[in-house]
Amino acid sequence: MKSLFTQVSDWFDTKVEGTSRSIAHHAGRRSFLSKAGAAMVGGFVLPMLPYDSSNGAAFARGFGEPEVLPDDCDYWRYCSLHGGLCSECGGTVTQCPPGSTPSKVAWVGTCRNPNDDKDYLVSYNDCCGKGSCASEGCSRQEGDMPGYRLGLASESSWCMANTDKGIHCTVAIVVGLAE
Amino acid sequence: MTRPLTLGVWLACGLAAQNAVAQDADHPAFEFETTSVRETIAPGPNIFVNSQGWDSASAVRVYGTDELDFKGIMSAGFQGNSAVSADGKTLYYVSGYYSRLSYGDPEHVLQIFDVDRLTPVAEIQLPLKVAQYTADASLLRLSADEKFIYVQNSTPATSVTVVDLTTKSMVQEVPTPGCFGVFPTLEGHSFSTICSDGSFMTVALDDAGETLGTTKSEMIFDPDADPIYLASDRYQGDLMFLSYNGTIYRAADHAGTVELVTTHPITEGTEGWLPGGYVPITVNEANGIAFVPMHPSTEIGTHHRGSEEIWAYDLENGTLLYRSPADNATSVFVTDDAQPALYTLNLRDDEIAKYEVDTEAKFAVKKAVSHNGIGFSTVLETAAQQ
Predict the structure, then answer these.
(1) Which residues, in sequence order, are bridge partners of residue A156?
(2) Residues of A annotated catalytic, as ranges
(3) Pair B289, B264: CB distance under 8 Å
(4) What is the CATH number of the domain that holds A15?
(5) Per residue in B200-251, pLDDT tens?
(6) Domains of chain B, earliest start first
(7) Predicted complex ipTM
(8) Chain A positions in Cβ-Cβ contact with residue B133 (cut-off 8 Å)
(9) In A, what residues contact B, Cβ < 8 A?
(10) Residues 6+ positions from A34 with CB-CB distance below 8 Å
(11) Which chain A residues are within 8 Å of B183, Cβ to Cβ?
């Protein structure tokens, strides 16, 4: 049985233009975002997930964040989030709740971290395979674009590439610096 | 075994009551009723509202255009998108059915409904690629002659499935990489789609639905500086789009490619206002007036916010005519006649409303009637010929 990493990598290899990973990490924000609509940007995020056993805390400390992130839509890394917070659904800011599956693709926002005043790329993966969790979600949608720039489109289901289509909640993973 | 006994007691009481009523000279004899089904909806023109289900069944709700009297629904699966025929008699509804609702084997199906009976009469299995996206008219579109229907796909690779409605079968899948939304031409079988670089791709199809060729337009809008919504309307045959910053883009699509005709910055001379909602532009053909829901904001990310005002903009003279108070309109639809009516959806208050339009007072609008219970509805439309 293939690991999640392998499955995601396989999917990534077949579905996503090979250059998007380097685009995401090395190109400027505008350049990256403009290409994100044609290619998919979320795939490169997912290989991180199987190795994140920190409940999000390691990431959080790394960005000058508190040990426990607030379940507050105004919090900086939720700037383009459109959905229910997985941290309110039995998961964490970077982990899907038990029994759900991370979406294979995601949309990306660019959020200003007030702790260092830098812009970060934040990947919003839906967690799939269960009914909706949160009754009240977040809808800040900063930088949200229509489907012609699909990698920035928060109005799409991001369980679209998963077999299990139910959208349970959404995680917010900092994946890079927006140069 | 208490149930039969209880039922028997109820029946006995009922018979006794009937006899008592029948013996009363002041009251007519009671007639027993039976369950039946109303065969058709109430007659008259309709407005269709797609209440899209993301965790439950989607439903197109049917209202009479005069008083918004509710006539019933046509239901489908998850993330449904709908399109109505020009005569208002047939509704096409594409959606997802997942065997265990939130997980299990998924399928995408195009269903065809008889509107009068609110009943599905045919269905077509589609590739498991249909866009799972907030409802928009551009995600399911009929060709002008209604021979074909075009289905937006997103896996996330984007493409358009072409379905022949005469044979009720899929013709082909047209790859439209980096582009989204379907905008069929008013003649023939071509369609255009908005691309990530601000251009449009136009796909020419023959009478069998096969591709004759594709063209790419010049850059119509700057997606970084001034992205346009998917929502659009037609005016004098041209496509009318609206940008996040409040500029109307008028584009022609009748010459084999999309060409920019003109732009109208409707916020010019104002400060601190932006359009918002899911269908934030609608155009009255007879008078050349665009109606746009607006809210006070200078921030990014408020482009789906409900209105505080609806602005009436004169497309012929390029002037903002009037700003009417309008609480939280998130989608707008105006009829094309000389004395139009404006309909709105209000997601916050779960409401559809009809506004009177005063053509003698700079197209000011005023709410006349409303109806609650629309669910997550972003698209409303009437049949073109009803």
Answers:
(1) B133
(2) 107, 126
(3) no
(4) 2.60.30.10
(5) 999 999 999 999 999 999 999 999 999 999 999 999 999 999 999 999 999 9
(6) 266-386 (2.40.10.480)
(7) 0.92
(8) 147, 153, 155-157
(9) 15, 30, 33-35, 37-40, 79-80, 105, 128-132, 139-151, 153, 155-157, 159-161, 163-168
(10) A149, B196, B197, B223, B224
(11) none
